[in-house]
Structures are given as C-alpha cells and as structure tokens.
Amino acid sequence: MTRRMACSLTMDAVRARTKTVTRRDPATWKTLVPGDRLTLIEKGMGLKKGEKQVVLAEVEIVDVRIEDLNKIATETGGFQAALDREGCGHMTLLGFAVMWLASHGQSDMIRLMPGGVYVEPDGWRTSVRRIEWRYVEWTKPGAA
Q1: Partner of 118 for a Cys bridge, out of 4, 66, 70, 111, CB 3.0 to 4.6 A?
Q2: Number of helices and strands in the chain (H, E)
Q3: What sign does the CA torsion over 116, 96, 18, 52 have?
Q4: What is the dihedral angle through the alpha carbons of 68, 29, 17, 11, rounded to the nearest 10 degrees?
Q5: Can you point out the beta strands (E) in the chain?
Q6: pLDDT in tens, 70-118
C-alpha cells in the first residue's frame, strides 16, 4: 500500500490531472524520493464517524527538493505556469503565498496594509519542500 497525501485544497485540479506539484512543510515528507508512489486523497484527517478517505489518483514522484517559497516566481514557464502546476492557476502569486503561509501556521509573515496584503521578506524566504509528480494509470479496486 502506498503512502497517502491529502489534496483537500486542490481536489479539482487533481481530478483534472492538471496539478503536478505541491509545496509542503520541509519537516514533512522527508523520506520521499523520485520513483516513490503516492495515493492522493481528498482528506486524511478530520473524517467524521463512518466517513472514508476518497482516493483521487495514484502518482509517481519525479522530483523532491527544498527551496524558498519565492522560487515559484522564477520556475520554468514563469510563475503563472507554476501556479497552474500547483492547481492554483486562479490565484495571484501573492494570493498563493498568503494561502500557503496561512495554511502552514505562518500567518505572522502576512500583514494587512492600507494598500492591501503584504508578505514579509522572511515569508518569501520560507523553506518549502517542492514535490513534483506524474500521474500513473490506476484502476479503482474492484473495477473491471
């Protein structure tokens, strides 16, 4: 059985097979290496009694590396392509950074200013574990 990774914020992009990258806290997924397989699920925690994990896809890891959050701005194809690969193409670069920092307990790096939202320079330098994958053929157990 492969390890499972929740994709609750980007389920639609996983279902559409357009999400191929995720950024996670560098303290997590430390043993993940290219060639490993993961089962992507809707959510793994906070399930109500009787609820089961919903499998979205099976993927093979292509690349894993630690980098600063701001590297998303200089990825091949530009930041918009990087956001698309994250399943967040509808967001701005700033919006993605705010969402990532807030969802990873680093809201102190975000400031609400008269002109809008601002991310502290240290927020942009936050280390993330960038995980890239490719989708593999997967047949739901019991399917013909």
Answers
A1: 111
A2: 4, 7
A3: negative
A4: -90
A5: 3-6, 21-24, 37-41, 55-68, 110-113, 116-119, 127-135
A6: 999 999 899 999 999 999 999 999 999 999 999 999 999 999 988 889 8
